[in-house]
Amino acid sequence: MSTSKPLEVTIIGGGVIGVQMAIGLLNRPNIPAILYGQGTARGRQGSGMAFTSNAMENMRQLNPDILKALDKAANPPRAAVYMTNQHPDFFQRRTHEGELPYDFAIRNKAGCDVLRPLPRDQFTAELDKLIPADKFSMRLEKIEAREDGKRVLTFQNGTTAEIDAVLACDRIRSPTRRMFLDKTDPAAIPHDTRQREYRNHISWEKVLEILGDAANNLIINVGPGGYVITYPFTNPEGKFLGIGAVMQDAEEWKKLNLKDTTDREGVVKYFSGWEPGVQKLIAALPEAVDFWIIFDSTRHPLKLYAFGPVCVAGDAAHVSPPFLGVGACLGIEDVLTLATVFVE
Ligand SMILES: Cc1cc2nc3c(=O)[nH]c(=O)nc-3n(C[C@H](O)[C@H](O)[C@H](O)COP(=O)(O)OP(=O)(O)OC[C@H]3O[C@@H](n4cnc5c(N)ncnc54)[C@H](O)[C@@H]3O)c2cc1C
What we know:
alpha+beta
């Protein structure tokens, strides 16, 4: 019988990916894991998100409890995503009277659901329940190599930890990734796509007046310079229509914050040439609208995702715009792959 100590995995970052890795390793008892997060798992609170059927299957393989958490938080799956063309030359010729206002639909030929929308904060609250809370409130400051080859983590509160392997899921501007790359390497930081996603929700009574029953569908309206995603969701406060309106910005984002708030008026103006229904939805948003700066790493991808025993995953490894909800779905693939490799 081997007496050697099993490999311990240290996870940095309690966002939607780090937490799922930790829960996935709970299901693989021969791989002990410890999760250090600087906050709780709540990430970008309040916004909605959607997962593909592939991502849901990956969650099941990581740990079926993740899917149970998703079921508690999520809304019914969507068998189709409807798209509309918002170019005025096109939509003004549309004649779908009495039909769903879409131009084509994305369906999964295997009969699986295409996307499952849910309120992000409810899902992460359910995930939080699956892991001990005492592993949070630790901000990683640095990773050093000791003379004996061991790596040591130092946290903001002065504590240190010796590690076997680190999996850093520490966000778009991953401090871990920056520790290992030269400042001049363009892959060290994510790049602004100059897309801004304006997000909020409106009450169901208002939505029915504007869209009628068609609002029950997940619709992506694509037009000049942007797209507007609408999806119904329910939470303990009632039923709402979630809206994500993506616009192009002429200016590069130079500030450090990843999210900000602006007046609705600019957004209303931007979509003024779109279909009347879309314009009415935008006009029904609250006066102050939150927006997210959209980054991506496709122009400057990392050449390697591991630096000795330190590996990055989730947004720390690759960021993508939120069209059709790929960001976290890709991160779940990362951690399922790593959990499988660690066991092997
Ligand atoms: C508007 C918007 C909508 C989106 N919608 C979707 C969608 O519908 N579907 C989808 O799949 N994806 C979507 N995404 C992408 C998705 O949000 C990300 O891919 C996902 O949150 C990445 O998870 P993560 O755990 O890697 O990073 P995060 O969720 O950002 O979490 C990182 C965690 O690391 C912690 N951390 C950072 N630095 C340190 C440190 N030094 N020490 C300790 N902890 C640290 C942070 O506090 C945070 O909790 C969307 C993104 C945006 C902006």
